[in-house]
Amino acid sequence: MTVLRHSVSVLALRPDRLWRLTTPLLDFVESTRVRGDEIVLDDGRPVPDLRLVEGRHLRPGARYASVKADAEDQMTVVVRAWQRRKAIVAEQTVSSDDMTVRLSIRLDTPDRPRRLDVDGWANGPEGSGPLRRGSGRARLDLTAWWAAADLPPGTPPPPRAPATVRLKHRLATARLDLRPRYEDGGRWRVDVSAAVRGRWLLRPVVAVALMVAGSRVRRGFRTAVEQAAEAWDRSVGELLALSPDALRAELAKQATDPTPAKPTDAARGETRTGGPAA
Fold this sequence. Notes:
Strand content: 35-45%
Shape: globular
Order of helices and strands: EHEEEEEEEEEHEEEHHH
């Protein structure tokens, strides 16, 4: 088994800061309605390329489909539950000629998020064999995350990581663990570890391959973790700098404009210097 480790510093997102984002997001989604089979905002603007093809909007059994004419991938989303005080559960399927990926997503107590669970499966075309199949599972226990982040300095980290990703394939398995601890300046120091293990008779083969490419693999792992941290800081910093009205305007823009756009300083309802406080 090969284990990779790296630590990064990121902006902390404390519970009240997270709720400041999730509540208006849920309010925004629930303000949408159906016109024919189109999804439209409360001001009547349609969400392009998305249609309700079955069921009632935001009710169990509601099925949505991407209808982009030139898209190589076809996407559907099915709502299994939508209760802001209990859970939101949805299933997403993305299909192409080469691969079908299915995700089952559950967010507990969405108004005050406690836990996020994502289960996924990937399959190649029919008859492609077991090497084109894989599965994964991601878990984020937010209650455990904030508790771990607030442990006094020098306290051993919890034995179970509050954020985990597990991947399983015919040839190998991989495990990713994230553990936070609070540091000065409204930031978290996040320890990231990844373990890769070959399966069955391929275990020594995978071990040797990782050993031979060890330095490149470790550099790639560190780079990927640092890039993810930079993306987190950029995205969270921009979102937290938006006033409630500006956040709603940005959500509407992202929903109706297929071209991603970075929030501008002019759209922000307040000005901040440095990172947001935890």
